[in-house]
Amino acid sequence: MVGTVASGVRSAVTDLRLAAEENPATAEMLTAVPAGAARIEDLLQRGPSAPIWHPLSSNGQACGWTEL
C-alpha cells in the first residue's frame, strides 16, 4: 500500500478483505495461505519482520510476517 497514511491502513485492509470475499477462489485461498498487507513506507523504515503486516484472513492486530 504505497502512500497510505497509517490511519488509512485499516480501511484499505477492509477493502482488500471485501474484494477477496467476492471471489470464492480467493476467499478459499486465504483460508489456506497466510496473506497480509503492509505500507511500503513501513517496510522501508522498519523492515519486513516488524509488526507492520495486517492479516487479510482476520481482523487481527498488526504482526510480523511470520505470524500471519
Task: Tell me what the structure shows.
The protein is mainly alpha-helical and 68 residues long. Helix content is 43%, strand content 6%. The two termini are 17 Å apart. The model has no long low-confidence stretch (mean pLDDT 86).
Q: What is the helix/strand order? A: HHEHE
Low-confidence parts: none
Specify the structural class.
Answer: mainly alpha
DSSP summary, beta strand count: 2
| Mean pLDDT across all amino acids | 86
Count every helix, treating DSSP H or I runs of 4 or more residues as helices: 3
Tell the overall outline.
globular
Q: In what order do the strands lie side by side in the largest sheet?
A: 1-2
Radius of gyration: 12 Å
Q: How helix-rich are the residues, as a percent range?
A: 40-55%
Outline the secondary-structure elements.
Elements: H1 9-21, H2 24-32, E1 36-37, H3 40-46, E2 54-55
Antiparallel strand pairs: 1-2
Could you list some keywords that capture this structure?
globular, 2 strands, mainly alpha, 68 residues, two-stranded antiparallel sheet, 43% helix, 3 helices
In summary, what is this structure?
The chain is mainly alpha-helical. It has helices at 9-21, 24-32, 40-46, and strands at 36-37, 54-55.
